[in-house]
Each structure stands twice: as structure tokens, then as C-alpha cells.
Inverse folding.
């Protein structure tokens, strides 16, 4: 048994490299890509804020032979990653998808300004509410939707091609699968969003 309390988490909750998604988008037409990736994604603007030591520590060890979800290479200006917005680790009976620094969340964001349970996404409810929502969980450094700071614990509608500012300085675009497919097949358009 591991002495590391953070050792038991789903690695796909970590930020993921763009390249596997790019390869899939280039092989598939838009409808097929949307079927294989049926949830929105957070596309992070290139940033030096990522805690590389935490990411590397989380990926070390194990039984070996695992596929790495993330490439940890230095780029001028930092890193850009993606996160599928989907349930992974928190209570399956609660529809909320929690983003935070803690490795127990559905979307792990290893950036020091992000709270342990920073924000929650709520998927559409068929027949009741057709839109995604996002809520700041009373985080220490706040959540902004576009240029508006969200009041804590008040869900707000979020739509395709809107962006979040998390913890005051990490920017993530909220993108529907078809939009992700388009960007992955159009590198110049992708660069406009990630290299700001």
C-alpha cells in the first residue's frame, strides 16, 4: 500500500496533451470525432503556471507500461493542455463535475492559484435545462466567465467559445466537440486561442 495519499487517482483527470486529439481529429470527420469525444473540453491558453513538479510526481511510479496522458516538455511561453469536461472521480450520483487542484477532483488543475475544489460544471438536463452551467465554489482567487467575476455558489450558463479565467490568471476556453475538431484541423485558428 502506498504512503502517498494522492497516489490513488485517475490519471485521465490530469491535463492532457493535445497531440492524441489532433491525430484523432485528422483521421475522423467531424460527426465521428463528436461521437468519440461527446463532451465539451477546456482548452488552456499557453501558460507557465503549471506545477511541473506536481505533474511529474503524479506520473512517476506505477507498475510500468502505462501510456502517458501528458507530454511534459518545455515550450517558450509555457504549456497548453486540454481537459475533457466529464465525470471521473467524484460522487457519481452528483451531476456536478468538479475542477480543482486536489487530485480527488474530476478535473485536476495543478496550478497554485487554483483552490482544491475551485469550480463545478453542470451538464445539461434533458427536457429541463439544455445548457451547460459553471459555478465558482467559493474559491480563494475567484473564477471569471469572459470578463465577469462569478459570484460564489451561483451557477451561470456557459456556452461554446466562452472562456474562463481561473484563480485570476489561468485562461481556459470552453469548447464543444465540433469546435475542438475544427481547431485541431486548423492550426492557425488554434494558435490564436492558445498563444494569447
Amino acid at each position: 500500500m502506498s504512503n502517498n495519499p494522492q497516489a490513488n487517482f485517475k490519471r485521465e483527470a490530469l491535463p492532457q496533451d493535445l497531440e492524441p486529439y489532433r491525430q484523432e481529429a485528422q483521421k475522423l470527420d467531424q460527426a465521428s470525432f463528436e461521437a468519440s469525444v461527446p463532451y465539451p473540453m477546456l482548452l488552456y491558453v499557453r501558460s507557465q503556471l503549471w506545477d511541473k513538479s506536481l505533474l511529474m510526481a503524479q506520473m512517476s511510479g506505477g507498475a510500468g507500461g502505462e501510456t502517458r496522458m501528458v507530454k511534459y516538455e518545455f515550450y517558450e511561453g509555457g504549456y497548453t493542455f486540454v481537459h475533457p469536461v466529464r465525470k471521473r472521480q467524484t460522487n457519481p450520483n452528483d451531476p456536478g463535475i468538479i475542477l480543482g487542484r486536489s487530485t480527488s477532483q474530476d478535473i485536476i488543475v495543478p496550478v497554485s492559484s487554483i483552490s482544491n475544489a475551485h469550480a463545478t460544471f453542470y451538464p445539461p438536463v434533458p427536457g429541463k435545462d439544455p445548457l451547460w452551467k459553471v459555478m465558482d465554489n467559493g474559491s480563494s482567487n475567484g473564477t471569471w466567465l469572459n470578463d465577469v467575476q462569478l459570484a460564489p455558489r451561483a451557477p451561470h450558463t456557459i456556452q461554446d467559445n466562452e472562456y474562463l479565467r481561473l484563480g485570476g490568471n489561468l485562461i481556459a476556453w470552453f469548447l464543444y466537440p465540433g469546435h475542438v475538431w475544427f481547431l485541431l484541423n486548423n492550426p492557425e485558428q488554434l494558435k490564436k486561442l492558445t498563444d494569447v
Summary: The chain has one domain: 11-59+70-194. The longest helix spans residues 19-27. The longest strand covers residues 170-175. Residues 1-6, 60-75 have pLDDT under 50 and may be disordered.
